[in-house]
Write a structure and sequence with these properties.
Number of strands: 11
Organism: Paracoccus aurantius
Mean pLDDT: 78
CATH class of the largest domain: Mainly Beta
Protein name: Copper-binding protein
Shape: elongated
Keywords: Signal
Number of domains: 2
CATH superfamily of the largest domain: Cupredoxins -  blue copper proteins
Distance between the termini: 57 Å
Radius of gyration: 28 Å
Strand content: 25-35%
Largest sheet: 6 strands, mixed
Low-confidence stretches: none
Order of helices and strands: HHHEEEEEHEEEEEE
Helix content: 10-25%
Length: 188
């Protein structure tokens, strides 16, 4: 008996949205008139101003904490250019630590001088960020995941990303021991 009642309730609940889809769409003027009538029934005063814009047309806009514009978070205006990383034999990778904000959009150039075949590895760092793209020789790569970047010759790779997980992460040259052979990223 309980199962039968449950099935009946589910069927009536599922039939209501289907019936609403079959109903002819209301004209904007009819919708505005119904909204005005409902407002009068609730006892709210009409101040003489007509509603304009999305609410009168039946469109609901979701508000956000920040207004990023049409391009959203990835707009160039929101992107911050970081100091470049350097891959060269015997030279420091970064001049100082990077302090990033979680949710911030960043771009960093990684320059290799070709003096030695070098890589930057940091699986934890790459899991803490969302990589938008890696650009190498004007070729845009949009990866699902990255563990390291290796340079066989001189060149530049540009990494654009959004910092996600707060923490302290490093990008380092594999097999190196020195403090200068890594770049430290503090995501707050």
């Amino acid at each position: 008996m309980t199962r039968l009642l449950t099935v009946l309730i589910l069927m009536t609940g599922l039939a209501v949205p289907a019936a609403a889809q079959d109903a002819p769409p209301e004209k904007p003027a009819d919708a505005a008139a119904k909204a005005e009538a409902a407002q009068m029934e609730e006892g709210e005063d009409d101040d003489g101003e007509e509603e304009t814009g999305a609410a009168a047309e039946g469109v609901h806009e979701a508000g956000a904490k920040f207004d990023y514009g049409f391009s959203g978070m990835l707009a160039r205006d929101n992107r911050m250019q970081l100091a470049p990383l350097t891959l060269a034999s015997g030279k420091p990778v970064a001049a100082a630590e990077y302090k990033l904000k979680s949710g911030g959009y960043y771009r960093i150039d990684i320059n290799a001088d070709g003096s030695q075949e070098l890589a930057l590895s940091g699986g934890d760092f790459f899991r803490a960020i969302w990589v938008n793209e890696i650009v190498v020789n004007d070729i845009e790569i949009r990866p699902l995941g990255v563990h390291s970047l290796e340079f066989d010759d001189a060149g530049t790779a540009t990494l654009s990303f959004i910092a996600i997980m707060p923490g302290r992460y490093t990008l380092s040259i594999p097999g190196s021991q020195g403090e200068t052979q890594q770049a430290v990223f503090n995501i707050q």
